[in-house]
Every structure is written in C-alpha cells, then in structure tokens.
Amino acid sequence: MSAPNKSYDPVEVEVLKPEAVEKARDEALAAIAAAADLDALHEAEIAHAKDRSPLALANREIGALPPAAKADAGKRVGQARAAVSRAVAERRAELAAERDARVLVEESVDVTLPWDRAPRGGRHPLTTLTERIAEVFGALGWEVNEGPEVEAEWMNFDALNIGRDHPARSPQDTFFIDTPGYDPDVDDGRDALILRTQTSPLQIRSMLTRKPPLHMVSIGRTFRTDALDATHTPVFNQIEGLVVDEGIGMADLKGTLDYFVQEMFGAGLTSRLRPNYFPFTEPSAELDMQCFVCHGSSVGDPDNPCRTCSSEGWIELGGCGVVNPRVLVSVGIDPERYSGFAFGIGLERTLMFRHGIADMHDIVEGDVRFTLPFGVEI
Amino acid sequence: MRVPLSWLREYVDLPAEVSGRELAEKLIPIGFEVETVHSSGAGLSGPLVVGHVLEIEELTGFKKPIRFCQVDVGAENGGVRGIVCGARNFKAGDKVVAALPGAVLPGDFKIAARKTYDHVSDGMICSARELGLGDDHSGIIVLPSDVPVGADAIELLGIRDEVLDIAVTTDRGYCLSMRGMARETAIAYGLTLRDPALLDTPAPTGNGFPVTLADPTGCDRFVARAVRGIDPLATTPLWMQRRIQLAGMRPISLIVDITNYVMLEIGQPLHGYDLHRLTGGITVRRAAPGEKLTTLDDVERTLHPEDLLITDGSGPIGLAGVMGGASTEVHEGTVDVLIEAAHFAPATIARTARRHKLPSEASRRFERAVDPNAAAAAAQRAVDLLVLLGHGEADPEVTVASTQPHPPAPIAIDAELPGRVAGVAYERAAVVRRLQEVGCSVEGTDVLSVTPPTWRPDLTDPNDLAEEVIRLEGYDRIPSRLPTAPRGRGLTLRQRLHRRVGRSLADAGYVEVLNYPFVGKAELDAMGIPETDARRSALTVVNPISDEQPQLRTTLLPGLFATLRRNVGRGFPDVALFETGLVYQPRPGASAPPRLPVDRRPTDEELAALESALPDQPRHVAAVLTGTWERSGWWGEGRAANWADAVEAARTVAAACGAELTVDQEQYEPWHPGRCAVLSLDERIVGYAGELHPKVLEQLGLPPRTCAMELNLDALVPETEVHVRGPRVSGFPVAAIDVALVVSREVPAADVESALVAGAGPLLESVRLFDVYEGDRIEAGSKSLAFSLRLRAADRTLKADEVAAVRDAAVASAARHTDAVLRG
C-alpha cells in the first residue's frame, strides 16, 4: 500500500470529487454489464474493481483530505466500490450459470448406445429349478440330500422292495457297470454296480443313518437306457420327497403335494392322486396337478383348447405313496411305530410344461441361446 | 389289456347307456389307467346286410376275372340285386355281407349304384378289411349258412363296439383278463359279477394223460384234457374272431383261437398239443445244459439250466409258460388235441422270457401271477368250446397233476389300519365290505383275519389290504394336511457353496451346461492323455447308449469340448461354458458290492463293504472359453479370451468357496505345455487351467487359443464354515510407492510378489503387479515387473525414512529369493 501523497494540495483532490467518483462507478457498471463471458468479466473486474482501478486509486487518496472531508469522501467512494463489487458478483453468477448450462448440453451422449462389452452368463434352468424346489421344501424345514450316482444294486432296488426279477432291473432299463468280481451268471451273493435309476437310494441312505422323524428331499441325476428324443433322455433329473414319522398317512402326502403345487405354480391349485403300483410304496398313486394355465376350464371346451394340459385339466407330475413297510424294515425302522410317504417328480418334464419347452433336445444340448434367457434364477 | 365293452357286458349287467368313456371315468379312480377308448366301427354306416348269393355269372374279356352276382338281400332291402365282385372265395349259396347304396364304409368310402365292367353294380360284397375288421383282404366274408337273409350285418358282426385300452399295473395280473376287469367293473358300479371261471369241473381221474411234475417249484399244477375227433374244417365263429381281434390278438385257427379266447376270458394261458405228435407222457422239468428246442416261431433255442420245460419222450416240446415247441404244434389237420392248463412260478417264466427275449401273451400273464385255481375251469371252458364249435368229443379222463395245494395265508390286519394309512376314518363295515368285494374272506372284529382270493397273490401285507380299501373308497376322499417338520438344518455348507459357485461363474460370463457323463477312448486320445494317466482308469457301462462312449467320465472336459464345438458350429464363435458334476474314479482293488438282506437293517460292516465297492465320485467344476472375451465396440478395442481368463475362472470358483488358490507353472494334458497353471490349495493339487494344446484343439476341431480350467470342487469346500475375521482399518494416510524389478524371464511373477510381501513386513497393506515389460531397454532374457506397494501403519503417519526402509527390505527380499534387480 502506498503512502498518502503529501505533494498534492490537501483540499483539492480531483479524483475524489463527487462527479469523478460517480463517473468512475458508472463506467465500471457499464463495463461489467457489457462483459459477455467470464473472461471479459474478469478483465472488467481488473479494470474497474481491483487495485489499479480508478475507484481503488481514489480510495487511496482519501488520507490526503483534511479530517473534516475524509468521512464524506470515504462514504462516497465506499458506496461506489460496493456497488461495483456487487455488480461483478451478480454478473459472474449469471455468466457461470450460462456456461454450466451450455457445457452440460455439449456433454450429452446417446444413452441408447449398447454396452455388451463383457460376456453375459447364465445357469441351466434344470439347476435353478432344482434349487427352487429345494427352497420350497426347505421352507418347511426339510433337508436336501445328494449322493452317489454310481450305486450298488441293493441301494437302488432291493432295499426299495424291487425284487430280483423286476423288469426294471434288466439291462433294457438300467445301465450296468462292468463290475470286477461280478458275474451275472454266477450267484455268489454279489451284485453289480449300476447308474442309479432313481434318487430313492438317497432316501435309503438317509434312513440307514438317521432316526425318524425324517423330512427330506433328494435331488440329482438319474439314468435309464432311453434314447434321446423329444420327450426322453437317458440322463435326467429327479426330486423325491420323503417323510417318516409317527402317524404319517396319505393325507400328509396330499397336503404336502398341494403345498408344493401352490408354491411352484400358483395359489389355489390342487393335486390329485390316482391309484397305481410301485414296489416301494403301498398304497401307491400317480400324482397329478391341476393345470396352472387353464385351471381345468379347457376340459370339454374345444373352442378354448389348452396346450399345457392337452385340455385334460390335469398334468401328470410323478408317482407317490405310503412308504412300503418292507422298505422301513430293510433300513431298520420299526414299521409298527413309524410310517411315511414318498413322492418323485421328474424335473425335465416339470421344466418343460412349466416353461413351455417343446423338445428335450433343447434342454440337453447346451446351446447358449436356450440357457441364457433363464438368467441365474428361475 | 384291451377290453371290448360288449364282451364285458356278458359278465356285468352294465346299464345300456353306459359308454366306454363313462366306464373309463369309473375305472381310472380305482387304479386302471385307461389309455384310450377306441370306437370301433365309428366310420361305418349302413345299410349293411346279410346277402344270399343266388347266382354267379363269370365275366370275361377283362384284365382279371370278374363276377356278376345275383344277391338276395331280403325283401325289405329291395330283394335281389346285381353286384359286381372280384373276389373268388365264395360260391352260389353262400351268405355274404352286402353294403347297399347309401352305406359308408371306413375311410369315407360311399357306396352307390354304379356301372362297372359293363354291368350296374347295385352295392358291394365286403371283405373284412373293407369293414375295418382287420387286415384280412384274402377274400370277402362268408357268413355261416344259418344267418337270416337281410339281417343287419353291423349288429351281426359286432362291428360297432368300444374298446378300452387299459394299462394294467404289474401287481394286478388278474386284470389281464375279462374276468378280472369284469370284477373291477362290477365293484365300481356296485353290480353282481357273473364269474366265467365258476364252472363245474370234473374231478381228476386216475387214468388220464400221464403228466409228471419233476420241478414242483417251477410248476405246481398241470391240468391236461383231451378232445378228439375235431372237424379240421370247422372255423372260428365270427363273433369269436371279432372279440379276439378287438382284444388285440389275431385269429389263426379254431383250436388256437379257442385257447387264446379262453386266456383272454379267464386269464389262464392254455396250450394245445396235437395228441398224435406227442411221444409218451409229459414231464415238466428244468433244462439240461446245452439242451435245444425249436419253438413254434421256428427258432432253435439253446436252453439255460434254469429254463422250465415241457417235455415228452422225444425231449423238450415247449418252453413252459412262454412258447410251445414246433414239433407238437396243432396244425390244419389236427383232429385230436391235448389242452394244457398249468400254473408256473412267475419268476421262472419272467427270467426265461427275458433270457430268450420272448415276451408272449402267456408269459406276460404268468410273470404277473395267474390264479392257480383257474386252471381246471379254463381247461373245461376250452373243452366245452372245442366240443361245441369243433364238433369234437371230450375224453372222460381228466389229468390234474398237482403238488400240495397252497391256499393263500390269512393276513391279520387292524380294522383301523386303512384309516390310519389314509388319514381318514372308515367305518369298520366299509373296510370289511371292500375287502369282500375284491374277493377276500374276512373274519374277526377289531383285528381282522383276511384271506385273499387265489387270484390276488399280490395281497400279502396289511398295507396291500389297506390299499384295496382306500382305492375303492376313493383317493379323492383323502383330506389334505401338511405335516409339521422339526427344526431343519437348511442347506449344508457344501450345498450353499455349490450354488454360490454356479452363480459366480454365471455372473462372470459363463453359461452353464449339463452334459451326459459318457465318454469314449477317442475323446481321451484326442486330448493327448497318456495311457498311464489316472483319467484313463474309468468305469465302463456294459450297455451304453452309444458304443463310441461306453465309459463314465473322469473329467468334465470331453463333454464341455463337445458342447463348445456345437455352439461354435451353430454360429457362436465367442462362447464361455461351465459345468459342475460328478466324475467317477474306480477304487483300485474294489470288488463287486455284496447283496445285502432286506428282512432287517444290514449291519454297519455289511454297509461298509457295500460302500467300499463304490467308486469315488467327487464333484468337479470345469469351464471352457473361446473367441472374444471382451468385445470391441464404440468404446474401443476388444480382447480375446486367453489363458489368464481360465485361471481367473478357477480363482472365481475358489473365492466363492472362501479359498485362495496357489498358482504354479505346470505341464499337463490337454493344456499348452507353456500355458498351463497347476492350482493348489494347502499344497494339494486341486486343478489346472490355461490355454489348450494347439494339437489337441486341432484334433477336437475347436478354435485356436481355446482355454479351459477344471477343479475338484469337493476339495475346495471346507469341512466347517470359516468365519472371516473383520480387519480394523487404519485412518492414517497411505504411503504408495512403486518398484520395478528386473528378473530372469523364467521367474514366475508370483514368486517375486511373495518375496516382496515377505520382505515388506506388517506395514504393507497391499501389493499389485501393474506392468510387465520385456524388450530393448532391459537385458535380453529378462523381464521387468512393476509393482505398486501401499504401506500404512495402524497408529501413526509413516515417516519418509520408515517408508524407504520397508521398500528396501522388500526389494532385498526379492533380490534374495528371485535374483531381482531394482530397475534403474
């Protein structure tokens, strides 16, 4: 800061005359208003509001005035400078807003551009369907069992009351493993290894090692010697339920199946049992569910056919029944005290009608176009 | 079993208006799956009448012989009409079936008077095939002479009928007969059954045809009846032919048709022998090793010692219960016949039929058990029909060879058991009534003593009886109640991790596939897997779907390669796939599993012996990827899938399991020898990853640079859940420093990194390799690795000299372990 200029006449300071201050102020306001952008405003500010500006210089001269004149001059110059500063701030805000708006417009992009840079994956719907069903039963407190696919005949057949001469045990239905030490023509108390034809060996394994009450589903791959066609595959997946407890009867089976059908296919649906025969259950039943598409309305109405249930009103889901007491005996559970029920559902078939899949080949072949739409959960 | 409705009505007085479909609706709920209800004759409408051929004029001058016949079709149908016919198997005086103008035959074949071969044909004389009565087109139908002229032939021939095709479950052998299905129908409608097996049968006489039961376990009853003097010209009446046909069999000759008819009616398979072709008496015995028999399909069969045979003085004359022999077969000239009605052990017949691949109508029934008490009645019925239709004369001698009779044992059943099994209360009276309806005799009050009928050998246990009650009372009466489970364990750790692994790989861009576990030698050859490799030691399927793939997989890769090839072949060059599933590893020295008992729980030792026979079946996870991994686009360049992606996929799997893999360089088929990583966990090898061998890719027809990884997923799953310890994060400033180290090209980056980590000590927060350089600016054969180290203390701001000390210690450690030199 420079010292007051003592060489000037102490009373007559030109720049502090009221007209001079007003002129300087008006010129400053005009320059600020005329600034077209922030750079021009910056220059106007330097010229009219900063240290070298006329008003700043005038301010410096106040000290040279006699004390009586100082207050008046100071007030006039101060008001002028304040007006200029205010004008700069206001204009700056205006110009900044204009600039920001312009930049955001300039920076806009086409948000419809694709972003398929990283590959997209997916899980097989059979896997996710299995998981989903397991969750439905998990919610009841049931356990989920998995286990070996290559099994001993006893686990897959004998323990399930499937006698040695049952046709399912022939190589026409069951995959036999070349088993060292086994000769089909020599009866020396040894069996062959097979690829399990059902997930029921998992139930046997659980019943052998655990005490009732048992509430579980068994899931996994099963194998039968069918050729691959539109509705069959030699390698398929099953889910089986088993409950063993005191006082268990077909009513519990029916209630469980109703629950399952409603959880998986929609509220209000019901299941139906039809007598059938399986060696491991007695009584046995074929398990149907009400068609979740037409709810039976297509029956006898040729104008509104239902493709899902072929206008039958019911869809076949699998087999079920009361666990044959002979099975309980073979695993060491007292059939006088305990009883149970079991059911089995084919997952490929369920997937096909639940998701409108027409051909088994699509499920089996592993074409990514089939799997991707199912995402990671079903 | 095909059940013609008209035939069924012979034994049950079904209301006339009951249709086949209505009957089906009644039978399905009690356990009979009616697959179809076929309306026979639906496409046919009259007038179709009996005509009397009065005169035949042979027309000449045409390409084939043609006849112009004068046929009396009855005054009410217009009297005598002229009809042109090409068939020659009839003569003047025969009764035939005439379709008159206005009739419509199956196939929408409309009959009209029209001019043909220069004559007006005022109708048509019909063959069986033209009427939809089978395939016999050998000639027109010649009716018995006593049928009235002008009668409605639709009615007469039983053309209109409904046939229920019923899938009889294997436990209900008795329903492979009209007798059995009539019984179930009678129960379903609450009507009375006229049992066709309720016949008066003569007592055995001492001097009948000699029969010896040498194997009483295989055959415990053999009824033999002779009928002599059968008219060889006698033919099977149309009604019987029609019934046999509707039931799904083929009419052959009178004697054969009668045996088949009685089998269909009563369920007892019969066999007819030409008496003159038999040598001495009959013995039922097992086959001798190497013995041979030519069955009546003219195939010579070598017999198994377990096969049960019918033999006479000449040797084997029949495979018991399966198929008769050619040498004693009835034939066109047979006049004297011996009828066999025997009872064979189901398992014996089942094994023989399967062994010789000879399923027959007879074996199907014997396998499912035949009523042992039906033999005498069935034989009597056949004798009656042979006398009636064949004009033969029955021998008064009756042979009934039989071992001790085996009456069904009574079953004790709590009268409340059916209710408990169903979960619904049944009246005691209803339980008793239902059991009586199926033929049981019932005694007792609270605990019932129930003796099943001889035709229900499947009823052996209390639950079997409960099922009879429940199904007849109706499964629809069973209420719905959800059982309460005790507290569950949820998914196991293993199951949760499996799900997480699948999700992680899918999120990382891989698509899950589920391949068949079958592989062949060629695939392993193409993968370059050495003969001594453990993966060559695989289980073999005896009866594989494809002879090219008889083995069970020991690695998931072959299946993934095939699926990858399929996807690429279908126009998707950028594919990443994964699979999780079991592989099968035979245990060295394992033997066949023991056959365990079923009448008790096997002992733990017995179960352990069974388990030891099973192969190891660990769950693996594998992935393959080819083509572009990151695609190019408006954002810039893309990137091809490479070995590092495969290793990263393995790391992704490990991370999902909470494990961290150690990666080392390795050479392992089918990977590129210089681009293969071996993956270990706690010093145990758990898998491999990298780029595949170029030669393997060529052999497999896969794109160059395809990459793969495979891990033993089971080995990654910890025994118990590991809880991550939460770190205390420091709020003090980070000191970031970069070091570039020059090492020999062979030194793995991972070694340099772990040396840095070891040297830097506890102040090191993280280390990251951010650049690799090989080139002119450093010595040939070496590479420069640039790491960025982040240092931080928990309790203070690090001073410059502390940072420098850590850096020097880290570099010194790298120099010591890997000969690394700080790049100037």
UniProtKB/TrEMBL annotation, chain A:
Primary localization: cytoplasm
Cofactor: Mg(2+)
Enzyme Commission number, as recorded: 6.1.1.20
Chain ranges of the Aminoacyl-transfer RNA synthetases class-II family profile domain: 127-373
Keyword Membrane: no
Similarity field: Belongs to the class-II aminoacyl-tRNA synthetase family. Phe-tRNA synthetase alpha subunit type 1 subfamily.
Name used for this protein in its record: Phenylalanine--tRNA ligase alpha subunit
Gene name for this UniProt entry: pheS
From TrEMBL, chain B:
Highest rank taxon of the organism: Bacteria
Chief location: cytoplasm
Cofactor: Mg(2+)
Cofactor note: Binds 2 magnesium ions per tetramer.
GO molecular function: ATP binding; magnesium ion binding; phenylalanine-tRNA ligase activity; tRNA binding
Residue span, FDX-ACB domain: 730-823
Alphabetical UniProt keywords: Aminoacyl-tRNA synthetase, ATP-binding, Cytoplasm, Ligase, Magnesium, Metal-binding, Nucleotide-binding, Protein biosynthesis, RNA-binding, tRNA-binding
Annotated Pfam families: B3_4, B5, FDX-ACB, tRNA_bind, tRNA_synthFbeta
GO biological process per UniProt: phenylalanyl-tRNA aminoacylation
Compartmental location: Cytoplasm
Positions contributing to Mg(2+) binding: 458, 464, 467-468
Span of domain B5: 406-480
Catalytic activity: tRNA(Phe) + L-phenylalanine + ATP = L-phenylalanyl-tRNA(Phe) + AMP + diphosphate + H(+)
SMART domains for this protein: B3_4, B5, FDX-ACB
Domain TRNA-binding span(s) in chain numbering: 42-154
EC number: 6.1.1.20
InterPro entries found in the cross-reference section: aa-tRNA-synth_II/BPL/LPL (IPR045864), B3/B4_tRNA-bd (IPR005146), DNA-bd_dom_put_sf (IPR009061), Fdx_antiC-bd (IPR005121), Fdx_antiC-bd_sf (IPR036690), NA-bd_OB-fold (IPR012340), Phe-tRNA-ligase_IIc_bsu (IPR045060), Phe-tRNA-ligase_IIc_bsu_bact (IPR004532)
Family note: Belongs to the phenylalanyl-tRNA synthetase beta subunit family. Type 1 subfamily.
PANTHER family to which the protein is assigned, alphabetical: PHENYLALANINE--TRNA LIGASE BETA SUBUNIT, PHENYLALANYL-TRNA SYNTHETASE BETA CHAIN AND LEUCINE-RICH REPEAT-CONTAINING PROTEIN 47
NCBIfam families in alphabetical order: pheT_bact
Full protein name: Phenylalanine--tRNA ligase beta subunit
Gene source species: Actinospica acidithermotolerans
Gene symbol of the encoding locus: pheT
